[in-house]
Amino acid sequence: MKRSTTQRGDRVAASAFTQAGQGSTEFGFDTGRRRSSRNGAVVFAIVLFALGFAAVLLVAQLALGGIGVAALIVAVLVGWLVASSIHIVLEWEKAVVLRLGRFNRVAGPGVVFTWPIIEFYTLRVDQRVATTYFGAEETLTSDLVPINVDAVLFWMVFSAKKACVEVEDYSTAVAWVAQTAMRKAIGRATVAEVAMRRDQLDAELKDAIEEKLSPWGIDIIDVEVRDIVVPKELQEAMSLEAIAERKKNARMVLAEAEKDISDMLADASVAYDGNENAMKLRTMHLAYESVEKSGGTLVIPSAFSEGFGANPADKDA
């Protein structure tokens, strides 16, 4: 039952992925900007049809003195032929033209002429950068932990011919390949590796997806993992593990610092050994530091002050 629910979720997700790859503003990313449209090209085709239709009716009116049913049929046919022979391909598009069912050329952008009936373009390929949202739900890691990961894929079509001829629906193919690659990448890593090595996961996904899609004329620009959700029952354990690791590192750093200090003190003791003048200077330095930090007055007992004066044995001598 759980597997059936997961499969239904994957089908719904794939539909959403396809819409995202085609420029959908779902998933809360509506920027308020309008998407580009082909209204101008559609209007151009309608105008061509109207001109062809009107030209035939005008000729029929002048030549025959009236417009009959045959003239209307011919006008519609001529208008359709004109509209299907001259096309507008937008700046970011490429038109894949077939002649009698076989690939002939890639045309555009701008005005594209085709032979009526024997030539037609089956697909207009958008060559701008596209985005596809994809993810993997409850995917098991190598240590059998189910996690949810979602990411965004940035891609573009660099070969309109391959995208049209090699694959039926390249936009849907991109979504499925990306999702499959993510599931495989997660299955090869532990939950800790997935959570802490996000950049490495990005690079691995990019290479795996590009290897699959490059033969279809699709270039992968970047893959960005958006979110990694670990089960709640494991979040506390991983948090405690991270805290323990930080404490361990802090203690190691403190131990190394204490070792360095002890080595320096040992070297200093060798320099002070048998050197009374050096000990007096050190005593004065410690007294100065205590006064400087406290900002108060240093009261020196008489026994302590003897360290700042001459050695009594030297006076007797």
Outline, from the CA principal axes? Answer: elongated
- Give the overall pLDDT as a whole number: 79
Rg over alpha carbons? 40 Å
> What's the CATH class of the largest domain, please?
Alpha Beta
Class of secondary structure makeup: alpha+beta
State the major sheet: 3 strands, antiparallel
Q: Tell me the strand percentage band.
A: 15-25%
Count up the domains: 3
Secondary structure tally: strands: 8
Q: In the CATH hierarchy, what is the superfamily of the largest domain? A: Band 7 domain
Query: Strands of the largest sheet, in order across it?
Result: 3-2-5
Number of helices: 11
H/E element order: HHHEEEEEEEHHHHEHHHH
DSSP helix fraction:
55-70%
